[in-house]
C-alpha cells in the first residue's frame, strides 16, 4: 500500500498494528509502499496480518489517528482507500 492506494503522503505519527502492537511509519510514503518500525523485539513474520486502521479496541490506529497524523479528518482517510486494496470486515482477525 502507498499513496496510489489512498495512504496519505503526510502521515507523521501514523502506522499499523502488527504483532500485537503499534508500528509507526518511518521515512516517506511512496506510491506503492511504506515502511514501519517493528522494533528490535518484534516476532512479526512475512504473511502476518496487518491492521492499517481499526476501531482502536486492541490498541490499533484508528481512522481518527490517521486523520490527525495527516492534517485531515477520519472520513477522508476511509473514503480515499482505493479499489486495489482488498477489504476484510471481520470482528476478530488479530
From TrEMBL:
Cofactor(s) in the UniProt record: pyridoxal 5'-phosphate
Domain Alanine racemase C-terminal per the UniProt entry, residue ranges: 1-90
GO biological process, one term: D-alanine biosynthetic process
Keyword Isomerase applies: yes
GO molecular function: alanine racemase activity; pyridoxal phosphate binding
Cellular-component GO terms for this entry: cytosol
Keyword match NAD: no
Alphabetical UniProt keywords: Isomerase, Pyridoxal phosphate
Any Pfam family the entry gives: Ala_racemase_C
InterPro entries: Ala_racemase, Ala_racemase/Decarboxylase_C, Ala_racemase_C
SUPFAM superfamilies: Alanine racemase C-terminal domain-like
Protein name per Swiss-Prot or TrEMBL: Unannotated protein
Amino acid at each position: 500500500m502507498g499513496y496510489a492506494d489512498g495512504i496519505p503522503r503526510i502521515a507523521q505519527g501514523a502506522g499499523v498494528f502488527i504483532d500485537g502492537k503499534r508500528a509507526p511509519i518511518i521515512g516517506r510514503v511512496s506510491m506503492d509502499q511504506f515502511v514501519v518500525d517493528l522494533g528490535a523485539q518484534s516476532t512479526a513474520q512475512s504473511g502476518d496480518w496487518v491492521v492499517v486502521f481499526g476501531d482502536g479496541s486492541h490498541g490499533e490506529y484508528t481512522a481518527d489517528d490517521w486523520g490527525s497524523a495527516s492534517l485531515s479528518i477520519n472520513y477522508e482517510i476511509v473514503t480515499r482507500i482505493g479499489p486495489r486494496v482488498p477489504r476484510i470486515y471481520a470482528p476478530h482477525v488479530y
